[in-house]
Amino acid sequence: MRLTILGGGGFRVPLVYGALLTDRAEGRVTEVVLHDLDDGRLRAVARVLAEQATAVADAPRVTVTTDLDEALRGADFVFSAIRVGGLEGRAADERVALAQGVLGQETVGAGGIAYGLRTVPVAVDIARRVARLAPDAWVINFTNPAGLVTEAMSRHLGERVIGICDSPVGLGRRIARVLGAHPNEAWIDYVGLNHLGWVRGLRVAGRDQLPRLLADDDLLGSFEEGKLFGVDWLRSLGAIPNEYLHYYYFNREAVRAYQQAEKTRGAFLRDQQARFYANARHADISALDLWDRTRAEREATYMSENRQTAGAGERDADDLSGGYEKVALALMRAIARDERATLILNVRNRGTLSVLDTDAVIEVPCLVDANGAHPVAVDPLPDHATGLVCAVKAVEREVLAAAESGSRATAVKAFALHPLVDSVNVARRLVEGYTAVHPGLSYLA
Fold first, then answer.
1. How many whole angstroms separate alpha carbon 90 and alpha carbon 104?
2. Exposed, middle or buried: residue 70 (CB in 10 Å: 0-12, 13-18, 19+)?
């Protein structure tokens, strides 16, 4: 089976390859094609993968290419993890937004909109090429903003594109661990959009254990979200929000922390990864050891500004291992081998949430088999969550409309309607600022 990874020079690609090395079953991935626009990054990542495979018999063969059509032909699965504009673009997204006093995070608020506006046209082009060159392939999208990009691609690929994210996986794992349950034996009632969802229940042997967690101060304050949001707020919500909702519930504090930080997250990663790729070229250095050290630093500093604001301290060691690569592997296994699995994924709504239309991409538990991912029926969201989900989905739709039409006015509307952008004039200045620094937004007129 052939897997094509778009963004194959990306820093997290070795996580995916590492997961593939653990799969020895029939029908496994035997060939991995890495595609990237940057040949130097491709070669650096290929060195890491070669070291990972050193002691593994019959490891998946790895090839690299900068030709997109060549990469797509013959693919059974296409894993999309591109970053349009690179980390320099992410740093610019943060800088422009913070200058206007609003959040510049890459998937939330102004930064997420800017990232979406320059990513959607590229993602749509990829979707059209997949439909033409590999019509039977399944696309697994990890490109951020994941829900928005998945919805854009689904307009050309239908149900054959599925979005993944490691945030719900990590959240469910932490809750299960605190409650003494095995994550694989728990049903996680998670509903929302990508980076905008809530765990409303965790059932073990048919019994919901979340009320026990919410009633116990010690348990509730012992894990990442309890420290981040505070036990009183979680108890008020009656649910455990995705960590990204900290940007909404504590927006002023988050913006202030980012403004006061020595470097924004994007600038930190830009500089850190520049060092990694420069050093990974040297033949006398273990690329794998270098990657491991760089990744450990990357994971330990994840959402550090938010944790500092909340007084949450350092991340627990168990939360540093990521997880999206495991979701990707489980998804491919379920489809390729008809091994039924339950995974939290980004898929078309199909009536799951009645407040959204059928084609809206949402993030919910899905039953996965050879025919794809099928969202599970869920209870309606409470009013406060419904309002936020509908508002953000409306913004996503304006981003898609602006990307399709090239309308600058529609782009302004997308910014202005977002709950974390509090002024139409700010929205206009954001569009001016972003078009000035991003050549990829020159299509807005």
1. 9
2. middle
Any residues with CB less than 8 A from the CB of 425 and at least 6 apart, and which?
none
φ and ψ at 215, to 5 degrees?
-85, -10
Q: Which of 354, 383, 356, 353 is nearest to 365 (CA)?
A: 353
Domains and CATH numbers, the chain: 2-163 (3.40.50.720), 168-249 (no CATH), 251-310 (no CATH)
pLDDT in tens, 299-348: 887 766 665 666 756 555 555 455 789 999 999 999 999 999 999 999 99
Burial class (CB in 10 A: 0-12, 13-18, 19+), 317: exposed
Q: By C-alpha distance, which of 168, 158, 14 is closest to 81? A: 14
Which pairs with CB-CB distance under 8 Å and at least 24 residues apart come from 215-223?
219/178, 219/179, 222/178, 223/174, 223/175, 223/177, 223/178, 223/316
CB contact at 8 A, 58 and 90: no
Region for residue 27 given its phi and psi (left: phi exceeds 0; alpha: psi -120 to 50; beta: otherwise): left
